[in-house]
Amino acid sequence: MNKEGNIRIAIQKSGRLSEDSIALFKECGIKLEMGKGRLKSESSNFQAEFLFLRDDDIPGYVEDGVADLGIVGENVLVESEKDVIVSKKLGFSKCRLSIAIPREDPFEGPADLDGKSIATSYPKILGQYLSENNIEAQIHEISGSVEIAPSIGLADAVCDIVSSGSTLLSNGLKEVQKIFKSEAVLIANNNLSDHKKALLDKILFRINAVQKAQDNKYILLNAPNDKLDEIITIISGMKSPTVLPLAIEGWSSVHSVLEEREFWEKIEALRNAGAEGILVVPIEKMIL
Ligand SMILES: Nc1ncnc2c1ncn2[C@@H]1O[C@H](COP(=O)(O)OP(=O)(O)OP(=O)(O)O)[C@@H](O)[C@H]1O
Ligand SMILES: O=P(O)(O)OC[C@H]1O[C@H](OP(=O)(O)OP(=O)(O)O)[C@H](O)[C@@H]1O
Ligand SMILES: [Mg+2]
């Protein structure tokens, strides 16, 4: 394999993004070895080299071209103010940045934050929110364990990552304002060579197939032949459903693809239309 031709991909070494980033490349059929303490690894079956880094460093490395691609949370990307291309939203590590205050404090609206101090690791995103809403608050930048700040008298409020809300709850805080929605994104350097652009396209093609498969289910069912027309309109599938005769006279087997988001409504409609023996199975890859 041509070493110069490898596309360099930066992923988080360990943390909330690591497992899903590694799983994504595996599902795309791109092998990557991870040894203990190993910070760089070349794929054995794709022209790619992986760098295992702290997530905060990834946008800068991709902007500078030290890495060609990277996976990072939108929160870290926007806070970094680096100039890179967002190639794909990846749908994992979904979270939000929110302002939270002690549970017992009253809160009528964002104007209540005027004159308050807010601890955060995201001073730029918070600063933007405050200025857009004409709130004069003091930003107190800290690098971690932000939720502790009000209880030790460091700040009146916090602005940090929230997902389930359990960290806020266990620190006596309540979420009062969501200011930014985030998920993991694949970012790319602005000046990729044509060769690397072609490798990125290959990766994106595979990611799309993996994501499409995750959003869809394969469905098999039995139906009396006089109900086929109605059933086929309910599950039209990728082109049209496959219809095969059953050994028993007057019945057919119908195979199709269903989108996860409309799954339960369609199942109900199918049952009402006379479908029986409905089987639903996951799809591993889906190429349109
Ligand atoms: N509770 C959560 N639920 C979902 N996503 C989260 C959660 N916490 C963080 N994230 C997302 O995952 C990213 C990485 O979080 P993590 O806690 O691993 O970062 P970190 O401690 O700064 O890691 P590093 O050591 O690489 O600097 C965050 O920037 C955010 O996008
Ligand atoms: O709303 P929740 O589901 O409780 O998640 C939010 C917490 O998750 C993250 O921390 P993490 O657990 O990754 O630890 P860290 O602070 O060491 O990064 C984040 O910094 C919040 O503290
Ligand atoms: Mg970090």
Automatic annotation (TrEMBL):
Annotated metabolic or biological route of this protein: Amino-acid biosynthesis; L-histidine biosynthesis; L-histidine from 5-phospho-alpha-D-ribose 1-diphosphate: step 1/9
A Pfam family this chain is assigned to: HisG
ATP phosphoribosyltransferase catalytic domain ranges (all copies): 54-208
Domain called Histidine biosynthesis HisG C-terminal: residue spans: 213-285
Record keywords, A-Z: Amino-acid biosynthesis, ATP-binding, Cytoplasm, Glycosyltransferase, Histidine biosynthesis, Magnesium, Metal-binding, Nucleotide-binding, Transferase
E.C. code: 2.4.2.17
Family listed: Belongs to the ATP phosphoribosyltransferase family. Long subfamily.
Protein name per its UniProtKB record: ATP phosphoribosyltransferase
The species this protein was found in: Lacihabitans lacunae
Organism placement in taxonomy: Bacteria, Pseudomonadati, Bacteroidota, Cytophagia, Cytophagales
